[in-house]
Amino acid sequence: MMTGIPSRPCPLVLAAPSGTGKTTIAHALVERFARFVFSVSATTRPPRSQERNGIDYDFLSREAFERMIDEDELMEWAEVHGNLYGTPYRNLEEARDRGEHVVLDIDVQGARQIKERVPDAVLIFVFPPSAEALWRRLTARGTEALDEVRHRLEAARRELEEAEHFDYIVVNDDLDRAISRVRAIVESESHRPSRALDLDAEVGRLRSEIDAVVREAPDVRA
Ligand code: 5GP
Protein backbone atom coordinates (compact mmCIF):
# COMPACT_ATOMS: atom_id res chain seq x y z
CA MET A 1 0.00 0.00 0.00
CA MET A 2 1.29 3.44 -0.81
CA THR A 3 1.41 5.65 2.28
CA GLY A 4 2.47 8.87 0.64
CA ILE A 5 4.56 10.37 -2.08
CA PRO A 6 8.25 9.45 -1.60
CA SER A 7 9.80 12.32 0.34
CA ARG A 8 13.16 13.76 1.24
CA PRO A 9 14.27 13.06 4.81
CA CYS A 10 13.88 15.70 7.46
CA PRO A 11 16.89 17.17 9.31
CA LEU A 12 15.49 17.45 12.83
CA VAL A 13 16.87 19.84 15.43
CA LEU A 14 15.98 19.24 19.08
CA ALA A 15 17.02 22.14 21.29
CA ALA A 16 16.17 22.68 24.92
CA PRO A 17 17.60 23.89 28.18
CA SER A 18 20.01 21.42 29.70
CA GLY A 19 18.15 18.78 31.75
CA THR A 20 14.95 18.81 29.71
CA GLY A 21 15.45 15.27 28.45
CA LYS A 22 16.03 16.03 24.79
CA THR A 23 19.01 13.67 24.53
CA THR A 24 16.79 10.83 25.78
CA ILE A 25 14.15 11.76 23.19
CA ALA A 26 16.77 11.92 20.42
CA HIS A 27 18.20 8.47 21.24
CA ALA A 28 14.72 6.95 21.64
CA LEU A 29 13.70 8.14 18.15
CA VAL A 30 16.72 6.36 16.68
CA GLU A 31 16.12 3.18 18.68
CA ARG A 32 12.38 2.91 18.11
CA PHE A 33 11.88 4.03 14.53
CA ALA A 34 13.46 3.14 11.22
CA ARG A 35 14.98 5.95 9.18
CA PHE A 36 16.23 8.10 12.13
CA VAL A 37 19.95 8.57 12.77
CA PHE A 38 21.65 10.48 15.63
CA SER A 39 24.06 13.27 14.73
CA VAL A 40 27.17 12.62 16.82
CA SER A 41 28.59 16.03 17.76
CA ALA A 42 32.21 16.89 18.33
CA THR A 43 32.98 18.31 21.78
CA THR A 44 35.85 19.37 23.99
CA ARG A 45 33.89 18.34 27.12
CA PRO A 46 35.39 15.32 28.90
CA PRO A 47 33.19 12.19 28.75
CA ARG A 48 30.80 11.38 31.61
CA SER A 49 31.04 7.85 33.02
CA GLN A 50 28.49 6.13 30.75
CA GLU A 51 29.38 8.00 27.57
CA ARG A 52 31.06 6.28 24.65
CA ASN A 53 33.41 8.00 22.21
CA GLY A 54 32.00 8.06 18.68
CA ILE A 55 28.50 7.13 19.87
CA ASP A 56 27.43 9.90 22.27
CA TYR A 57 30.04 12.42 21.14
CA ASP A 58 33.37 12.58 19.37
CA PHE A 59 35.45 13.68 22.36
CA LEU A 60 38.23 15.92 21.09
CA SER A 61 41.03 18.06 22.45
CA ARG A 62 40.59 21.81 22.03
CA GLU A 63 43.32 21.73 19.33
CA ALA A 64 41.55 19.00 17.34
CA PHE A 65 38.24 20.88 17.62
CA GLU A 66 39.84 24.14 16.47
CA ARG A 67 41.35 22.28 13.53
CA MET A 68 37.84 21.21 12.49
CA ILE A 69 36.73 24.86 12.63
CA ASP A 70 39.74 25.97 10.55
CA GLU A 71 39.12 23.26 7.97
CA ASP A 72 35.46 24.26 7.73
CA GLU A 73 34.20 20.83 8.75
CA LEU A 74 31.51 22.11 11.12
CA MET A 75 28.03 23.13 10.01
CA GLU A 76 27.62 25.00 13.30
CA TRP A 77 29.45 25.20 16.59
CA ALA A 78 29.01 27.00 19.90
CA GLU A 79 30.55 27.36 23.32
CA VAL A 80 28.15 25.90 25.88
CA HIS A 81 28.85 26.00 29.63
CA GLY A 82 32.57 26.55 28.91
CA ASN A 83 33.05 23.72 26.36
CA LEU A 84 32.96 23.70 22.57
CA TYR A 85 30.34 21.64 20.73
CA GLY A 86 29.80 21.35 16.97
CA THR A 87 27.94 19.47 14.26
CA PRO A 88 30.10 18.08 11.43
CA TYR A 89 28.71 18.76 7.92
CA ARG A 90 29.38 15.09 7.25
CA ASN A 91 26.55 14.04 9.61
CA LEU A 92 23.94 15.90 7.57
CA GLU A 93 25.38 14.89 4.20
CA GLU A 94 25.58 11.18 5.00
CA ALA A 95 22.02 11.10 6.38
CA ARG A 96 20.68 12.92 3.33
CA ASP A 97 22.46 10.49 0.98
CA ARG A 98 21.00 7.51 2.86
CA GLY A 99 17.51 9.04 3.00
CA GLU A 100 17.55 9.17 6.83
CA HIS A 101 16.15 11.79 9.23
CA VAL A 102 19.19 13.11 11.08
CA VAL A 103 18.49 14.13 14.69
CA LEU A 104 20.59 17.01 16.02
CA ASP A 105 20.64 17.33 19.81
CA ILE A 106 22.14 20.81 20.10
CA ASP A 107 21.85 24.01 22.09
CA VAL A 108 19.72 27.02 21.22
CA GLN A 109 22.59 29.01 19.61
CA GLY A 110 23.40 26.05 17.35
CA ALA A 111 19.74 25.71 16.39
CA ARG A 112 19.70 29.33 15.24
CA GLN A 113 22.71 28.69 12.99
CA ILE A 114 21.11 25.56 11.51
CA LYS A 115 17.92 27.48 10.71
CA GLU A 116 19.97 29.93 8.63
CA ARG A 117 22.05 27.29 6.84
CA VAL A 118 19.65 24.38 6.39
CA PRO A 119 16.32 25.85 5.27
CA ASP A 120 14.48 22.52 5.28
CA ALA A 121 15.53 21.65 8.86
CA VAL A 122 12.68 21.30 11.35
CA LEU A 123 13.37 22.97 14.69
CA ILE A 124 11.71 21.65 17.80
CA PHE A 125 12.10 23.36 21.15
CA VAL A 126 11.61 20.88 23.98
CA PHE A 127 10.08 22.43 27.11
CA PRO A 128 10.36 20.98 30.59
CA PRO A 129 6.92 20.67 32.21
CA SER A 130 8.06 22.82 35.19
CA ALA A 131 11.08 24.38 36.87
CA GLU A 132 10.77 21.75 39.58
CA ALA A 133 11.11 18.95 37.02
CA LEU A 134 14.15 20.67 35.54
CA TRP A 135 15.76 21.02 38.97
CA ARG A 136 15.06 17.35 39.72
CA ARG A 137 16.60 16.17 36.46
CA LEU A 138 19.68 18.36 36.80
CA THR A 139 20.40 17.24 40.36
CA ALA A 140 19.50 13.57 39.76
CA ARG A 141 22.30 13.27 37.20
CA GLY A 142 24.68 13.66 40.12
CA THR A 143 27.40 14.88 37.76
CA GLU A 144 27.05 18.64 38.30
CA ALA A 145 27.97 20.68 41.37
CA LEU A 146 25.18 22.84 42.80
CA ASP A 147 26.77 25.99 41.40
CA GLU A 148 26.73 24.40 37.98
CA VAL A 149 23.05 23.44 38.37
CA ARG A 150 22.21 27.03 39.28
CA HIS A 151 24.19 28.24 36.26
CA ARG A 152 22.24 25.88 33.98
CA LEU A 153 18.92 27.07 35.38
CA GLU A 154 19.89 30.68 34.69
CA ALA A 155 20.86 29.69 31.14
CA ALA A 156 17.45 27.97 30.79
CA ARG A 157 15.70 31.24 31.65
CA ARG A 158 17.53 33.00 28.82
CA GLU A 159 17.14 30.14 26.32
CA LEU A 160 13.36 30.05 26.73
CA GLU A 161 13.21 33.49 25.12
CA GLU A 162 14.22 31.87 21.81
CA ALA A 163 11.23 29.51 21.71
CA GLU A 164 9.19 31.71 19.38
CA HIS A 165 11.79 31.29 16.61
CA PHE A 166 11.28 27.52 16.48
CA ASP A 167 8.88 25.60 14.23
CA TYR A 168 7.38 23.52 17.03
CA ILE A 169 7.30 23.27 20.82
CA VAL A 170 7.03 19.87 22.50
CA VAL A 171 6.56 19.62 26.27
CA ASN A 172 8.42 16.68 27.79
CA ASP A 173 5.89 15.96 30.53
CA ASP A 174 5.99 12.25 29.76
CA LEU A 175 8.77 10.65 27.71
CA ASP A 176 6.62 8.37 25.54
CA ARG A 177 4.16 11.16 24.81
CA ALA A 178 6.97 13.57 23.91
CA ILE A 179 8.50 10.98 21.55
CA SER A 180 5.12 10.41 19.88
CA ARG A 181 4.68 14.15 19.39
CA VAL A 182 8.08 14.47 17.71
CA ARG A 183 7.32 11.42 15.55
CA ALA A 184 3.98 12.97 14.53
CA ILE A 185 5.72 16.22 13.55
CA VAL A 186 8.16 14.36 11.29
CA GLU A 187 5.27 12.38 9.79
CA SER A 188 3.36 15.58 8.93
CA GLU A 189 6.49 17.24 7.59
CA SER A 190 7.01 14.34 5.18
CA HIS A 191 3.65 15.21 3.54
CA ARG A 192 4.72 18.75 2.59
CA PRO A 193 4.81 19.23 -1.20
CA SER A 194 8.23 20.86 -0.81
CA ARG A 195 9.62 17.58 0.60
CA ALA A 196 8.35 15.38 -2.22
CA LEU A 197 11.24 13.72 -4.04
CA ASP A 198 9.69 14.27 -7.45
CA LEU A 199 6.33 15.99 -7.27
CA ASP A 200 6.25 16.68 -11.03
CA ALA A 201 6.55 12.96 -11.77
CA GLU A 202 3.72 12.12 -9.34
CA VAL A 203 1.46 14.82 -10.76
CA GLY A 204 2.31 13.70 -14.32
CA ARG A 205 1.54 10.07 -13.50
CA LEU A 206 -1.84 10.89 -11.94
CA ARG A 207 -2.75 13.20 -14.82
CA SER A 208 -2.02 10.57 -17.46
CA GLU A 209 -3.99 8.00 -15.45
CA ILE A 210 -6.91 10.45 -15.37
CA ASP A 211 -6.57 10.94 -19.14
CA ALA A 212 -6.69 7.16 -19.64
CA VAL A 213 -9.77 6.82 -17.41
CA VAL A 214 -11.51 9.62 -19.29
CA ARG A 215 -10.60 8.07 -22.66
CA GLU A 216 -11.80 4.62 -21.73
CA ALA A 217 -14.82 5.66 -19.69
CA PRO A 218 -18.11 4.35 -21.07
CA ASP A 219 -20.69 6.98 -21.87
CA VAL A 220 -22.69 7.05 -18.65
CA ARG A 221 -25.43 9.29 -19.97
CA ALA A 222 -28.67 7.43 -20.43
P1 5GP B 1 26.00 18.17 27.55
O1 5GP B 1 27.38 18.60 27.92
O2 5GP B 1 25.06 18.24 28.71
O3 5GP B 1 25.99 16.86 26.81
O4 5GP B 1 25.47 19.24 26.48
C1 5GP B 1 25.40 20.60 26.80
C2 5GP B 1 24.62 21.30 25.71
O5 5GP B 1 25.34 21.31 24.48
C3 5GP B 1 23.28 20.63 25.41
O6 5GP B 1 22.30 21.64 25.26
C4 5GP B 1 23.56 19.94 24.10
O7 5GP B 1 22.38 19.76 23.34
C5 5GP B 1 24.48 20.95 23.44
N1 5GP B 1 25.17 20.37 22.28
C6 5GP B 1 25.53 19.08 22.08
N2 5GP B 1 26.09 18.94 20.87
C7 5GP B 1 26.06 20.15 20.28
C8 5GP B 1 26.48 20.64 19.01
O8 5GP B 1 26.99 19.93 18.14
N3 5GP B 1 26.30 21.96 18.77
C9 5GP B 1 25.75 22.80 19.67
N4 5GP B 1 25.58 24.08 19.32
N5 5GP B 1 25.33 22.38 20.89
C10 5GP B 1 25.49 21.07 21.19
Structure description:
The chain has a domain of 139 residues: Rossmann fold. It is 44% helix and 18% strand. It has a 5-stranded parallel sheet, with helices on both faces. A hairpin with a 2-residue loop joins strand 5 and strand 6. The longest helix has 18 residues. The radius of gyration is 21 Å and the shape is elongated. The two termini are 36 Å apart. 27% of the residues are buried. The mean pLDDT is 94. The site of guanosine-5'-monophosphate has 14 residues, from strand 5, strand 6 and helix 4.
Question: Which descriptors would you attach to this protein?
Answer:
single chain; 222 residues; alpha/beta; Rossmann fold; five-stranded parallel β-sheet; elongated; binds guanosine-5'-monophosphate
